[in-house]
User: Fold this.
Amino acid sequence: MENESAGRGVSHWGVGLLLLAALLVAGVLAWRTKSDSRDAGVQTALEEGPLSVEELRARAEAEPGNPEGWQELGFALFSSGDFADAADAYGKATDAGGTEAVLWSALGEAKVMASEHDPMPADALAAFRKAIQLDPSDSRARYFLAVKKDLDGDHEGAISDWLALLADTPAGAPWERDLQRTIEQVGAINGIETDQRIAEAVASRSPLAGGPELGGGAGIPGPSQQQIAAAGAMSPDQQRDMAMGMVERLEQRLASDPSNVDGWVMLIRSRMTLGEPDKARKALSDAIAANPSEAGRLRQEAQALGVS
Assistant:
């Protein structure tokens, strides 16, 4: 029973890790921009600058039947940490006829991130399943459907699915190392060997494995050329500032809802990702103080994340 509880906790830590799709948005987009640097649209966007959220919202509302406008608004809102409004925008994009798999998996992820307590809301799961129906290679949907297996106690099934995703991930992708960490840490908590299997998955890659973008050919959910250019133009310090802002918003949410244990695990993981072990330890201390009955679980998960 204790192991099952730990598995559930790491599972939602895995969901928090795709704060991978939040913490690393800027990095992924910069990577995409490097591939698209000859595109005249990117150069134009760099010169003109990105549209604000307010401008994107006005444009989407002016053309409510155009899924692209809602998709771009959803991406901007997600990038700013406004996950509930991002889910609403992505939902309007699908209602307007958007049929791309990445749009549905973006909708699912936004619903997961907006959820205060349920690590896998039913409507998010339905969106991921729709994405896989449209494109079985959609990386984000594959990741979260594996998370669902882990939440249900099928830790081996989850790890196998993540390993298959790793085998399809291009070397050097911004999410590659974090995906490996997910596999390693869920394996460690549940007594499943993963080191050799990770090595085999990496070795099995074809030269074109996965393509250069998360989510098969279409990538993270539909950034416009302006958004790609803007993220690609960010300095490393600006990208870190963007990530820090997202983590600080999570910290603020926990201040108003300190009973959210999964949120604390997400915060600890995020602080470690940002290279802030002292703040990760403080988050662990605050989490235990707010949830003394969960102290054992919190310490176990923090230890798996390298927090002593």
